[in-house]
Each structure stands twice: as C-alpha cells, then as structure tokens.
Amino acid sequence: MSTYHFIAASEAFLTVEEPLEEVLRERVRHYGEQGKEIDFWLVKRPAFLDAPQLEPIGSAVPRPAAAVVSTDEKFITFLKLRLEFVATGRFEAPSTSIPDALASAT
C-alpha cells in the first residue's frame, strides 16, 4: 500500500486559470536532470474524491474536478502554497474504497 498526497480543485482552475502546466513541465525537466522517476500525476475527474474517507474534502471541490497526486508530500505542500485555493489531502491505496487511485491519471 502506498500513501498518496494531493491537491484538488476545479478542473478549470487547475488547467486553465493557473499556470500549473508550467510548474509541472519544470518539475519533469528537473526530475530528468536528476535522473529521478516521475512521482506525480495530473488526474482529471479523480474518482478517489468520491471515496467515503475523503467525503469532507471531495464534497468541497467544485466539479468537474482535477487533482495533482504525488507520493512526495513536500511537492504537494509546495503546490498548495503556490496555488492557494486548492483542497489538500492524502490517502492510502490500493484499499477497498480506492482500488486504483491513478486509474484515470493523465
């Protein structure tokens, strides 16, 4: 089982209103230079927000939603500070309510 950390907001906010693509592109470049594996994903319409244990967070996120999910808690903290108006959380997967957290990762 792995722990995933995330930020979530409306899909329009994360993919249109904010320069998230630039931040993620820079992160990919940096990881490439460091020889590090990608440990984050942009997930459009994340099903994990509907899991019972994430209901308080999931119900607060406007739909359609999007999320950046990572195993790196510090990266998610950075995104939260950079983007401000996002929900944050974490979950363990796979679990009975979240069988494949990244099934819809893009």
TrEMBL record:
UniProt superkingdom: Bacteria
InterPro entries, alphabetized: Ycf54 (IPR019616), Ycf54-like_sf (IPR038409)
Gene3D superfamilies: Uncharacterised protein family Ycf54
Pfam families assigned: Ycf54
Segment forming the signal sequence: none
PANTHER family attached to this UniProt entry: PTHR35319, YCF54 (PTHR35319:SF2)
Family to which this protein belongs: Belongs to the ycf54 family.
Protein name according to UniProt: DUF2488 domain-containing protein
Species whose genome carries this gene: Cyanobium usitatum str. Tous
